[in-house]
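Throughout our pipeline, every protein is held as a single compact record rather than as scattered files. The record that follows is passed on verbatim for readers who wish to inspect the format:
___
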Amino acid sequence: MPTQGAVNRPPIQYKGADLEPERGPGLGCFRFQLLVLFFLVILTPISVVAGWPEAISAILLFVVIALLLLTGQTMIFLMRLIAADRRTRRRPLGSTTKTVGELEDAAAARPASPDGADDPAGGDGVRQ
């Protein structure tokens, strides 16, 4: 009988299906949105100080608000993608064996003796 911690959670759902990294906005789209948002946040108060028509300043303000909403939603989507990716890469909670990365880290941290006494394979680096 498996322990309760050994059972992995189901994949993250998005619109009724598994969350796929290939679908939805990407990092390039997000960076473009941030660039446009930054430009408009700077331009909107300049339009007021420069005495541009009130309609243009109002339009710029509403565009900034809409872009804030859109950028926030894109940020939430990208964070969910990262969470889904990390969830698939983690070691199962009930696993008693070390992962390859943990074995490599342990081997790199352990100083190698010159005579091969530490090596259970006899110094040739190959384990049978």
Remarks:
- Residues 1-6 have pLDDT under 50 and may be disordered.
- The chain is about 55% helix and 5% strand.
- Residues 13-109 form one domain.
